[in-house]
Amino acid sequence: MPFFWRVDNNRCIEGVIDLAFFQQRNGKCLILDWKTDRVPPDNTETLHARYRPQLAAYWKAVSEIAKLDVEAAIYSTGAGALVRYSTDELAREWSRLEKLSPDQFDVEVAADLRPTSSPPVNQSEQLEFAQL
User: Fold this and answer.
1) What are the φ/ψ torsions at residue 29 (nearest 5 degrees)?
2) Whole-prediction pTM
3) 67: left (phi over 0), alpha (psi -120 to 50) or beta
4) 24: closest CA among 65, 68, 86, 90?
5) Which residues sit opposite 5 in a β-bridge?
6) Burial level of 13, CB count in 10 A (0-12/13-18/19+)?
7) What is the DSSP string of the chain?
8) What is the pLDDT of residues 19-36, one digit of tens each?
């Protein structure tokens, strides 16, 4: 779901949310972003922290645009895990982000959107994939 939201006279947020599930009659929305970073299944804390600014920005934008209660999560394909963010956590992160200058805001949020380097694939992983 692409969106564009004017934060104020100096800043806008533009993004693409992988999945937005709206329940208009309940006044709720769930936004979900897929992440393909390689992480061990038992270590999603790194992803949780890495993508907090991005999800806080998405959360705030959708909340303001849709006028609904919004929940946010990421799904880690590497860990096979759903990683949820609390509304309080997102509100605190947004409060921090909105105090930044427009340039610093871009750095904070865009830093979380840059792809991370993945470790090289070893020969056995290539063979396993080829056998599928």
Assistant:
1) -150, 145
2) 0.80
3) left
4) 68
5) 13
6) buried
7) -EEEEE-SSS-EEEEE-SEEEEEGGGTEEEEEEEE-----TT--HHHHHHTHHHHHHHHHHHHHHH-SEEEEEEEETTTTEEEEE-HHHHHHHHHHHHTS-HHHHHHHHHHTTSPPPPPPPPHHHHHHHHH-
8) 999 998 899 999 999 998
